[in-house]
Design brief:
It holds the Pfam family Cu-oxidase. The chain folds into three domains: 1-183, Immunoglobulin-like; 185-381, Immunoglobulin-like, CATH 2.60.40.420; 397-594, Sandwich (Immunoglobulin-like), CATH 2.60.40. It is mainly β. It is built from six helices and 34 strands. It binds copper (II) ion (CU).
């Protein structure tokens, strides 16, 4: 993977100095050459001092959205990529940096990019979800995403946020701590992204278009990948295997990212343990496991300790799905990479000895919800003086959303292949969210929301039922583009309740613009009287994507301190397509620094 981002400090200084010179000259002040040099040097010195004082560095990067060919499983396809790579380039920044990404669309599809997990404080225009915070970048057009990384450090990722293009348009974001600030755990010998993806032999845009046209569930992927490689367990794929070469006694930090479209994944390395130290760019209390689970949208940093001696063996690093859904509605295959040890006896240190014993990890059963619960219960914020857990202790607004599947009646001009001749759908509080044809954020900012959205998303189900009991006969959902309005700085508690309509399922819900604290979770129906007493308001995990347990509920809290329109949706792309999405509208505060910034001049038009 290419390290394609570079610090632009020297060039921006030169630019600043050059611009100042131009201004000086444009004002008619004519000076001879030596004076100009002195002015130049002074301005340069001043800029360095200011940059140091502000501890701010600009990182600039150009991303080209372009078609590229790739061959996996003995089939070649043309696909949408960034810079011709999949995964795309790694973005590296430090906490406090400003990041400036120019994205140019060279393909026939509309495109947007989302910086998943970046808080985007007051810069919602740079968040990326199509028709939510921006109109898409059209063919031949560019857009500059300009944002500052504030109060976050660890691993996040970027991906396309329109239709299913994120299948091949994704890459890591690495946020290093501020200069001189160590990790709160022993520094690893090396660190590297380990990105899980899905490989589709078919064109995923055709897959989703066909699903929408028939109302049926879409096809599933053909393979999972690690850093773009499916590995040796698939036909015609052994040559496309991710290999991690390690030295005995050293520790490696794997920056795990689940970029799969539709699958939560178990991950394990044979005969090794993994120490979880961070999730979603927030440090956690370290704990050690043999296997972990990671949902689409989530990131997890783990420390992998190599054995103290050369083991004379190789080890699979494997990932396979966790799903409670019906077989056939998900990809039930296994991706493997290989962990290899450098042989100290070998002439070439990195040589790979053929014929070594190969160990495979044992992954949980594909529907092992107990494993998932045990794992997620281990996640705790550090909650130290340096890294406090700022859990809202009191609540201004309480909400209860059902989250689940459903159906829509078949339109008269269509033949539908969903359950009993309907179309598949999904909803929150029975509203299947319809994306508008104009962007929500701009409609809000300009005051022209009529006909684009309604500010009346239900705060609780309109007709309560036994959510996890026998499902109701009527599985139909309503449709609409409804936002939930929050005053600035409201402290919010949201309980999300899975339903049994068309089967219980785990839904990894992702909130844009905020981190939230996972204060409680459980199975069955949420009990508003007794469950809050069990909430963890001391050291709950802080993250941006959380699994609503299959047949259960999860409670989160967050402070609405970021004005803008913020998408919240299931990160299983198929569910998002079916409407399992909504948006919050957080109003401006009264102070100047509590207001959404104005839109950039190059904001794309619909
Ligand atoms: Cu879902």
């Amino acid at each position: 993977m290419a390290m394609a981002i570079s610090s632009a400090l020297p060039s921006s200084l030169l630019m600043a100095a050059a611009v100042m010179l131009l201004i000086v000259q444009a004002q008619g002040i004519t000076r001879h050459y030596e004076f100009n040099v002195r002015v130049y040097i002074c301005i340069a010195c001043l800029s360095v001092v200011i940059a140091f004082l502000m501890n701010l560095i600009d990182r600039s990067i150009d991303l080209q959205v372009q078609m590229a060919n790739a061959t996996r499983l003995c089939a070649t396809k043309s696909m949408v990529t960034v810079n011709g790579q999949c995964p795309g380039p790694e973005l590296v920044a430090r906490e406090g940096d400003r990041v400036v990404v120019r994205v140019t669309n060279n393909v026939a599809h509309n495109i947007t990019l989302h910086w998943h997990g970046i808080r985007q404080v007051r810069t919602g225009w740079a968040d990326g979800p199509a028709y939510v915070t921006q109109c898409p970048i059209q063919t031949g057009q560019s857009y500059v995403y300009n944002f500052t990384v504030t109060g976050q450090r660890g691993t996040l990722w970027w991906h396309a946020h329109i239709s299913w293009l994120r299948a091949t348009v994704y890459g890591p974001i690495v946020i290093l701590p501020k200069p001189g600030v160590p990790y709160p755990f022993p520094a690893p010998h090396k660190e590297l992204p380990v990105v899980f993806g899905e490989w589709w032999t078919a064109d995923t845009e055709e897959v989703v278009n066909q699903a929408v046209q028939t109302g049926a569930g879409p096809n599933v992927s053909d393979a999972f990948t690690i850093n773009g490689l499916p590995g040796p367990l698939y036909n015609c794929s052994a040559q496309d295997t991710f290999k991690l070469k390690v030295k005995p006694r050293k520790t490696y930090m794997l920056r795990l990212i689940n970029a799969a479209l539709n699958d939560e994944l178990f991950f394990s390395v044979a005969n090794h343990t993994l120490t979880v130290v961070e999730v979603d760019a927030v440090y956690v209390k370290p704990f050690t496991v043999e296997t972990l689970v990671i949902s689409p949208g989530q990131t997890t940093n783990v420390l992998l300790a190599a054995k103290p001696y050369y083991p004379g063996a190789n080890f699979y690093m494997s990932a396979a799905p966790y799903s409670t859904a019906r077989p056939g509605t998900f990809d039930n295959t296994t991706v493997a990479g290989i962990l290899e040890y450098e042989n100290p006896m070998s002439a070439s240190a990195a040589s790979f000895v053929k014929g070594l014993p190969l160990f495979r990890p044992t992954l949980p059963q594909l529907n092992d919800t107990d494993f998932v619960t045990n794992f997620t219960n281990k996640l705790r914020s550090l909650a130290t003086a340096q890294y406090p857990a700022a859990v809202p202790q009191s609540v201004d607004r309480r909400f209860f959303f059902t989250v689940g599947l459903g159906t829509l009646p078949c339109p008269a001009n269509m033949t539908c292949q969903g359950p009993n001749g309907t179309q598949m759908a999904a909803a929150m509080n029975n509203v299947s969210f319809v994306l508008p044809s104009r962007a929500l954020l701009q409609s809000h900012f300009t005051g022209l929301s009529t006909g684009v959205y309604a500010p009346d998303f239900p705060v609780a189900p309109l007709s309560p039922f036994n959510y996890t009991g026998t499902p109701p006969n009527n599985t139909n959902v309503a449709t609409g583009t409804k936002l939930l309005v929050l005053p600035y700085n409201a402290s919010v508690e949201l309980v999300m309740q899975d339903t049994s309509i068309l089967g219980i399922e785990s839904h990894p819900l992702h909130l844009h613009g905020f981190n939230f604290f996972v204060v409680g979770q459980g199975f069955g129906n949420y009990d508003a009287v007794n469950d809050p007493a069990k909430f963890n308001l001391v050291d709950p995990v802080e993250r941006n994507t959380v699994g609503v347990p299959a047949g259960g509920w999860v409670a989160i809290r967050f402070l609405a301190d970021n004005p803008g329109v913020w998408f919240m949706h299931c990160h299983l792309e198929v569910h998002t397509t079916w409407g399992l999405r909504m948006a919050w509208l957080v109003l401006d505060g009264s102070q100047p620094d509590q207001k959404l910034l104005p839109p950039p001049s190059d904001l794309p038009k619909c």
